[in-house]
């Protein structure tokens, strides 16, 4: 995967597959600490200790359609290659938090890519689920919660093309300046 927004989407899809009704996606940028953190926290079914142990092994997956699950190993590899690490906290019946850190300015740090696009994709494909999208960048914060958007839309589904267009512009406008700090080092 060339862009971290693709990893983000992929890992968030694990949360959807795990039955998470509310998934929080956070991008933390701290340029003084040269730190980028991507966090996906869900309230899905969680992982057993056995799964948790084996989950970063590329030859392990619980899916039957494909033998090899690569989402988490690729995310871990991206983090470790760029001077960071990936951690997973998970509890069965409670949920899972996957967090990857990266060193800003590291030569192997992939570009963030189209983060708003990934979020809109996720929301549009799962209009019945809720997502919180947070960006914290050098002390400035942006937060979108689909539960609030739902209230404003008054019954118009999150999957409608007009809403996708609105959301994309809204997210781009409010996160562009925050996200671009990640490549100013
Ligand atoms: N958020 C999550 N909640 C519960 N289980 C998860 C979660 N993320 C990953 N898993 C478990 O870890 C396995 C490996 O995930 P991943 O590396 O993304 O590969 P894949 O999704 O192709 O199986 C999944 O099949 C699933 O069993
Ligand atoms: Mg996956």
Structure report:
It is a single chain. The chain has 185 residues and is α+β, with helices and mostly antiparallel strands. It has a single domain, classed as Heat Shock Protein 90. Helix content is 37%, strand content 25%. It is built from six helices and six strands, in the order αββααββαββαα. It has helices spanning 4-17, 49-54, 71-81, 115-125, 146-153, 161-179; strands spanning 22-30, 35-42, 86-91, 95-103, 130-137, 140-145. It has a six-stranded mixed β-sheet. Helix 1 packs antiparallel against helix 3 (71-81) and helix 4 runs antiparallel to helix 6 (161-179). It is globular, with a radius of gyration of 16 Å. The mean pLDDT is 92. Bound molecules: adenosine-5'-diphosphate and magnesium ion.
Care to give the gist of this entry?
With 185 residues, the protein is of the alpha+beta class. The chain contains six helices and six strands; from the N terminus they run H-E-E-H-H-E-E-H-E-E-H-H.
Give the tags:
185 residues; alpha+beta; Heat Shock Protein 90; six-stranded mixed beta sheet; 6 helices; 25% strand; globular; binds adenosine-5'-diphosphate; binds magnesium ion
Helix/strand class: alpha+beta
The tally of helices reads: 6
As for the CATH topology, it is Heat Shock Protein 90
End-to-end separation: 22 Å
Q: Note the beta-strand portion.
A: 15-25%
Q: Tell me what the CATH architecture is.
A: 2-Layer Sandwich
Strand order of the largest sheet: 3-4-2-1-5-6
Globular, elongated, flat, extended or rod-shaped: what is the shape?
A: globular
Number of strands: 6
Number of domains: 1
Topology order in helix (H) and strand (E) letters: HEEHHEEHEEHH
- For the record, what CATH class applies? Alpha Beta
- The radius of gyration is 16 Å
Ligand inventory: adenosine-5'-diphosphate, magnesium ion
Main β-sheet: number of strands, strand sense, barrel status? 6 strands, mixed
Helix fraction bin:
25-40%
Uncertain stretches of 5 or more adjacent residues: none
């Amino acid at each position: 995967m060339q862009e971290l927004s693709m990893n983000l989407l992929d890992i968030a899809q694990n949360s959807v597959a795990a039955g998470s009704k509310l998934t929080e996606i956070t991008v933390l940028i701290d340029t003084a600490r040269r730190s980028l953190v991507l966090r996906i926290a869900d309230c899905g079914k969680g992982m057993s200790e056995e799964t948790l142990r084996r989950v970063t092994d590329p030859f392990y997956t619980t899916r039957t359609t494909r033998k090899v699950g690569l989402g988490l190993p690729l995310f871990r590899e991206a983090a470790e290659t760029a001077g960071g690490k990936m951690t997973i906290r998970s509890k069965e019946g409670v949920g899972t938090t996957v967090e990857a850190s990266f060193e800003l300015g590291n030569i192997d740090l992939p570009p963030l890519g189209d983060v708003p696009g990934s979020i809109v994709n996720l929301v549009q494909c799962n209009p019945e689920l809720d997502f919180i999208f947070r960006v914290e960048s050098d002390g400035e914060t942006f937060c979108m919660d689909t539960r609030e958007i739902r209230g404003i839309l008054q019954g118009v589904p999150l999957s409608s093309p007009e809403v996708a267009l609105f959301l994309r512009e809204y997210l781009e406008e409010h996160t562009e300046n925050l996200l671009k700090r990640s490549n100013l080092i």
